[in-house]
Predict the 3D structure of the following.
Amino acid sequence: GSGTSGSGGMVLVQGGATTAASGGAVVVGSGEGTQTSSGSVSVASANGGGAGTSGRLVFSSGSSRGGNSGAICVGSGASTAGRGGGVVLSVGSGTSGAGGAMSLAGGRSTAKTGGAVVVGGGEGTQTSSGGVVIQTSNSGVSGSSGSLAFSSGSASGGNSGAVLLGSGAATGGRGGAVVVSAGSGTSGSGGMVLVQGGATTAASGGAVVVGSGEGTQTSSGSVSVASANGGGAGTSGRLVFSSGSSRGGNSGAICVGSGASTAGRGGGVVVGVGGGTSGAGGALEAISGRSTVATGGAVALRGGEGTQTSSGAVRLATANAGASGASGTLVFSTGTSKTGNSGAVEIGTGAATAGRGGAISLAVGSGTSGAGGELAMESGSSSGATGGALSVRGGAGSAKSSGAVVVATANAGTSGASGRLAFSSGTSKAGNGGAVLVGSGAATAGRGGAVRLAVGSGTSGAGGELAVAAGRSTIATGGSVSATSGEGTQTSSGAVAISTPNSGASGASGVLVFSSGSARGGNTGAIRVGTGAATAGRGGGVSISVGSGTSGAGGAVATLGGQSMKKTGGSIILCSGKGTQSSSGAVIIATINGGAVGTSGCLAFSTGTTKSGNSGAILIGSGTATAGRGGDVHVAVGSGTSGTGGKLQLQAGCSTVATGGLINMYSGENSARSSGQITIRTSNSGTTGSSGCILLSTGGSTSGNSGSITLSSGVATAGRGGAISLTVGAGDSGTGGMLLMTAGQTSAAGATGGSACINGGSSSTGGIGGAVFVRGGSSTSGTGGLVHIRGGEGQATSSGAVLIFSANSGSTGTTGRLVFSSGTTKMGNSGALLFGSGTATGGSGGTASAAVGSGTSGIGGQLHFKSGRSTAASGGGLSLASGEGTQTSSGTIVIQTANSGAQGTSGALVFSSGSACGGNTGTILIGSAAATTGRSGGIVISVGSGSSGSGGSISLAAGRSIVKTGGMMVMASGEGTGKSSGQVVLQSVNSGTSGVSGHLSFSSGCSAEGNSGALLLGSGAATGGRGGSVRIAVGSGTSGTGGHLSFGSGRSTVATGGLICMQSGEGTATSSGVIIVKTANAGVAGSTGRLIFSSGSSKDGNSGAIIIGSGAATGGRGGDINFEVGSGTSGSGGAIALTAGRSTHSSGGRVVICSGEGTQGSSGAIFFVSANAGISGSSGRLVFSSGSANGGNSGAILIGSGTATGGSGGLVSISAGSGTSGIGGAVYISGGASVGTGGNVEIKAGASTGGTTGSTYVKNPTNGAATLTISATSFIVDTGTVTIAASSTITVEAGTTLTLEGGSNGVTFDSSYVYGFEYDSGTVSSGAVTLNKMTGKITSDSSDLVPSGSSQTITLTNSRIVATSLVFVNVKTTCTGGHIVVVSSNPGTSGGSATIVVYNAGQNACTTAYSLSFVVIN
């Protein structure tokens, strides 16, 4: 019945007990249903109450003391015409806590094998047997389904049980498949499938073998190891093939290969990375093993051997690039080295015995956009010695020519240029730059090979330059440039020809410039052109000539002496060669004959102008003659067939402060006869012209008399004075020639000289006014006549003005145009147009002004300056230059637009070169000139201020190119050769009262197909000082948060984002610079700013690593790394937390702390120490703990010292500190508790490869004596009898010697069989045989048979024999015909051999060899 307190009443059904037979049974059975189902039997506990559990059901047989306990059988009955009923064991569901467990366990036995648990499907005698399904139920909404564990139990003294998973054999079909797979899921990583061989502490771990099924008649089955396809946003799983790590031996090898084939070829081995549609393709790496004590493992790629034909090829290639990317790089590089040479990279083909060595080709693939890929060969740099050499050499030809070395760039495309070739040695800081040597080798029986430097031809633009420049030196003479032809020891030396090639159809051949450079503190270099001296011939000629041409003026030859700012300018000397026995050479200065329609060139002999002294004299004369007459001096104008004859003009010098220069013409003096005649006359005229006039006139005078003209004949002492005749020549037609003499001056004080006026006629009836023409005479075959208009000279005041202007217009017209233009020309240059004011000796030159008049309507008139256009060459230049100031400043050039009116803007200023169709557009150069003793002028570009709107912008933009790189923009301050170079300041102006100062934006432009441009900010290198500082700072403010300073590298949508690198300056002789990253000190009431070092988050891949480390040091130690929290005066000290990454799908990140390696000394220590406690506290705890685990093992904790190659492993000490009060600190080492087997505690002594290994001691806790000592060489038990027994085999094996010592009673084998002695055999040769074994067989020499009654001596060399050995020898087989007996066998006195004597006791000689057996016992 029910109750309201205490446990409910019990119902007990129990069979009867008996002491003599089986106890009574308890049977519970339902009623039989003869036609339908029999009744059910339900055994159930009642439902639990509100706070309790439902009652347990226990089905158990009782315990047994002397026999088996009773079996429990649960099953359904047999069915004749139906199927047997199901048997269901299930645990009820619940709404809280873990679901109830169900356990099936075989019986435990303390003496025999435990009971088995067998789960089998029902037999189907005609069809398939029943399946066996072992599975956990589906999980709930937020949990996981239960795990399935198939495991044999652990074993203490034998093997643990095997786990066998397989399908049964099939007689008439195929064996069933075995599938092990992890179920699919919709979140987190997929479930893992792990196949692992067993671990062992005494031998090799268990193997894991995956093998396909054998096909005895056809192919064997495939073995596929593959991860499943990745989902929509993930990656397919990794495949890892790796052998485990090894502490005392080699780690296991990984062998991937196809099997050998007897009648076919070996199967291919393909290692490939799958294709993808986004991101970089997967990497494929082959890395050999690392070694800390010897050479790292090699990586070998080798083609298969072809014993009859070619061996297989080895190809390393990246796949073709996609539509918008680049094909992958190939990197062949050896690793870095700290204390030795880095590994060599050797690329070569093998030697060929009967053919030629294979070719080596390094080529960069072609492309259709951007610059072609680079091919760079660079030898190694060295910080302590000479850098590595780079040698390119053609192959030797021992019987024929050696191979050529061709260094060339490929042909250019349709719109580009072929690549440059740069042969240059590197720069040098403290020594000479490397030499560049180009030459051909010496030839013993032939001529040295030619060396040729040539620039390729082109079809547009200027031809490519060929520049040879010697080295520049800042402290000594610059390098020389020497061009020397080859020496001819028997015949002529080689020629040196420097010339430009012939020009094209519409251009000019190139100029040749021979010039020494300018000099600031010394003489400029001389130029010497000369031929060498000749011992038995004449010196070679020197010829300077200008080539002929068919259009334009002929090329000039200019010879200028050097200019000097403080001394006399350089001389020019033309001197013919001396003839010591005959005439000296002639000096001829002449212009070449004129062409069909031109004139021959003029000859101008003139000295230069001077400002404070006499200008140079011109002396023309023939030399004196000792035994002959002086040479003639002849000045004559050549004859012509058209136009006026050429002029001959002599003019003395002009002077502004004294009398002008004289003109003296003297005939030659003769002391004994008449002096020479002087004749001044014009030549006879032609048939239709007149003879030329002769004009004799003195110049005008401003404050004195004008010069007189005196015509007189000389005084004659004994004769009459010569006649003077002034006549006009007679003519036979027209007016006679005029002889006009006019005085052009007035003597009236203050009166004006007479004017000369030419006016065109006026018109008063509406017609056009008459024109005035002033025109030089025309010529059909020569130059037209000159028109010369000048104002009157004013000797004391200003000269007269020359005004050319059109008159004012009427009420409805415009003023007349003024046109200043030279005429057109068909075959030569059109005439020049010169506008300028004259030079002034004591004042300034007159102003030249070109201005457009003002107007009252429409746009103001334009002012154009435009140089000449050319259809065949460059257009004319336009030059604006201010006046030179030889003592003070030169003049200013101002180009500006006028001020705007009330409603408009001032005019724009446009400085632009014109556009170009087939070449480069013109350059725009803005700069101030160099200054010798002062500073060069500044350049200011500024925008004017305004009172409304934003200030005007300044834009600097380099040129745009649609096929090449855009133009470069360079801003550089002025060089200071003796002092600092100038500053470059880029800043925005201070803001107004309510705005912000303008921002500065430094940015390269965006790029559609390639990389955007780099942004470089840095100070220059300094040879004798330090590099300038680079500072980026945010200005201070008085309100709001301080301005940010952000560094952000580039973002990439398809590959890795850009790098940010902060690096201090290198100190090649001392320390490199410090990098300080810190926040500023906090204010009165705030805290200092945080420092955050964090890589960004990642959606589909790993987030970036954070690496903090100091650099390697070659001659010192690596820098320290300190993590330290600042001290404070309130609250707990700041914490330092190192936390590895959390993973929701896989294992969390590792935290690794490793001290520095010491390759020659000790590696660094690692201290985990809490600071000393204060006065009243305790020092901080150290907690080493792995985290807890919900569904797996918690992490292991490993504490140990590392291995030591040449010393002992480090001590591991765990101890509690001493104290002065209370109980001493405890040390606990305990294995983990478990509901199953508890964790082990293992203690292992240290091994030694070169000395004594450590021992493990178990000591008596009472007296401290060792009761068990275990070392690598001994196992010592200090106790009574020790018995070792085995049910099968005991193996005792010693590396060198096995000693069995039996004490006083000896060693017994207890009547057992002993076998396995070492054995060898050999044949006697020359009376001796060597056998280094304990036993063996000796066969006699078949060529040395023993006669009857004779003995034979054999020397047995054996390392086992010592002087005290017992050597037993018996006859194994005797010879045919004779009878061999052993007479003696004696060991040598020093060991190592024995002498054996045998005797033929038979009646006949031996006809065959015999054999002996021997045993050596020591």
Summary: The two ends are 97 Å apart (CA to CA).
